[in-house]
């Protein structure tokens, strides 16, 4: 029986990108961008975000500047929180640490 485990966590810039592929397990990484964190009131010394909950790419070819702009709030993708998804398809049951 194959088990599938999904772990969501924030990506840290100092963590090297890893992907492991062995006979018993396979790990796949995916990245998704969630809520916008752009401070729209920074110029006046305040703090206000627009409430955009998820990055949605604008209508643009992949690899162009238009594809890096959010269709919902108009901000660049770098203002959205980056989350890394790690998916592990394991043949063996997870160890219990005993």
Topology, element by element:
Blueprint: E1 3-10, E2 25-36, E3 80-90
Antiparallel strand pairs: 1-3, 2-3
InterPro entries: ZF_HD_homeobox_Cys/His_dimer
Organism: Raphanus sativus (Radish)
Protein name: Mini zinc finger protein 2
Net shape: flat
Summed up, the helix count is: 0
Oligomer: single chain
- Low-pLDDT stretches are 19-24
Which structural class best describes the helix and strand composition?
mainly beta
User: Helicity, in percent?
Assistant: under 10%
What is the strand arrangement across the widest sheet? 1-3-2
- Count of extended strands: 3
Order of helices and strands: EEE
Short structural description:
Keywords: Metal-binding, Zinc, Zinc-finger. With 98 residues, the chain is mainly beta. It has strands at residues 3-10, 25-36, 80-90.
Tags for this model:
transcription cis-regulatory region binding, 32% strand, zinc, mainly beta, DNA-binding transcription factor activity, Mini zinc finger protein 2, 98 residues, ZF_HD_homeobox_Cys/His_dimer
Verbal overview:
- With 98 residues, the chain is an all-beta fold.
- The chain has a domain of 56 residues.
- The protein has no helices and three strands.
- A three-stranded antiparallel sheet has the order 1-3-2, with no helix packed on it.
- Keywords: Metal-binding, Zinc, Zinc-finger.
- One of its GO terms (molecular function) is zinc ion binding.
- This is Mini zinc finger protein 2.
